[in-house]
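If you are new to this repository, start here. Below is one unmodified record pulled from the training split, so you can see the exact layout before writing a loader.
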Amino acid sequence: MFGGEIKVIGDSYAGGFSCGMTLGDNGTMQQMETVIDNEDRTVYEDSQRGLSLTVNHIKENDVWNVITEVTNNGKQPVTLELLSSFLLKDVKVDRVHRMQSFWSAEGKLKSESITDLHMEKSWNGCACRVEKFGNVGSMPVRKYFPFLVVEDCEKGEFTGVQLYLASSWQIEMRCREKETYTILGGIADRDFGQWTKKLNAGETFTAPKAVVAKGKTLLEVCDKLVKAQKPDISDKDKSMGIIFNEYCTTWGNPTYDNVKKVCDKIAGKGIDFLVIDSGWYGNVDGWWNMVGDWTVNEKRFPGGMKPIADYIRSKGMIPGLWFEMESVNSGAKQFEDAELLVKKDGYPLTVANKRFWDMENEDAVAYLTENVIGKLKDAGFGYLKVDYNDTMGMGCDGTDGPGENLRKKVEASREFFRKIKREIPDIVIENCSSGGHRLEPSMMELASQASFSDAHETTAIPIIAANLHRVIEPKQSQIWAVMRVGDTDERIFYSIVSTYLGRMCLSGDIYDLSDHQWKLVEDGMDFYRQAADIIKDGSTIYIKADTESYNNPTGEQLVVRKLGNRYLVIYHRFENSKDMPFDLADKNVNVLAEYGHADVDFSAQAWILEAAE
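And here is the target side for that same chain:
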């Protein structure tokens, strides 16, 4: 089932009209002999050149963890242009399931047949068929998630994989002489992501991890992959607490006074975290352009951030603070610190008005240690929202190829996340990247929570939130419910019920709501607390959405999550929708709790059910 592939520069490429589409099935692998192929490990060796490729595929609970490493035991350096993290051999595939993603439109399931993909074997087997997809840059969830599930319809078997890689990646399917498929993936190779890696004599390089699962349904495989993730969730965040983020209240204009006003309004309502978002820094107007200069705006927060953090704590909540710590925008003086910034072709890599700290540079890390970690410590913040609002693209300068240099910069960023946790052990970290551009496992494992999307006030919120159950844990997926003074009861139900698809986060006109509106919100918070353990520890067993459009959703969406003999049922109605497709009174269940009313278009309702004995 398992294997691996490498390609060394100078060796031959595959024929079958495939050169430029794949670097696999190449001359390097033709020179290698399989010396071990057992349940846990596959090893290839080229004894003449001294190359060894080891693929460890260890079964752990319901998944295989795949770790691939290549060692140069020869006397001469070699340069790689392909290294797979995983490879699956001779897979029967009828349908292919991928997860698409764009800004504010994360997680759309795309299911296609082999004929849809035009991937049927050629009539005589001489021509290679290749389907290759991925992402290039430092926003790994863009266009696609690093995820694939393939389906054998005849046997009713599904095989899925997730890559643990926060920079450029690829997944590839190919066939040639057989009607079964080779499926592999890992770092985006030289063709796809301008990746090359020099391996000196005696050196070993380990590819990013991949996780593989099998099951009888798409959701079963997704659940196994998601539960294999091991997020570093803070002890302060294990009770599924409710968050309030003031961004959709102040729109980037937080001050001591307006945050205090929010704090006073929500105090005593069972909200655990109050997060101050962007705009607290920079002593000039135009906060967006001041990213990287983490000088507190004293006009907004006299005396710095400690007074407001102390005030939030005095009201029984944990204070949070926003940083876009890996970036520098053009209004900040640090924008001109060229020696501390990532370069491309000898120039600071500039994307619109943004540059990027070189996280491999000790002085850059020292600056961020003082100005990010130091500020969090000194002011007593217990929650950090990390944002990341553009991508470095295909690569940057360094000692290897542009793609490998980029990978090393991103790995250095991940190490800074670990440094934060070492210095502030109980801090709650939120992984945000203009919403969901970093919702991949290696980043999710560094965080307690993640911003699911920037689609905070759109009607697509429940669609995105439900789709993300296939790739991240709902207990980490922070869903915003933005309250507005003009919201009808139906709109409040629609927004609040959406948060039951993950972690509840409130924002908006919270201090201008009527008593009636507040009552609906608080009732929704009570229901969330009752459902929290199902959200946290359950399995999603059913997702059905009629709509094809995120922007103009039609029909209905039904999601069911199960824990033991209890079920969380979430129903949203869109345009031209119908009533709930079944009557709970006719089922062999007890209704433990319910919230909302799904009686018109763009309304919603949720139930907690218990299977009757």
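Two things worth knowing about this chain: The chain has two domains: 2-228, 239-451. DSSP finds twelve helices and 35 strands in the chain.
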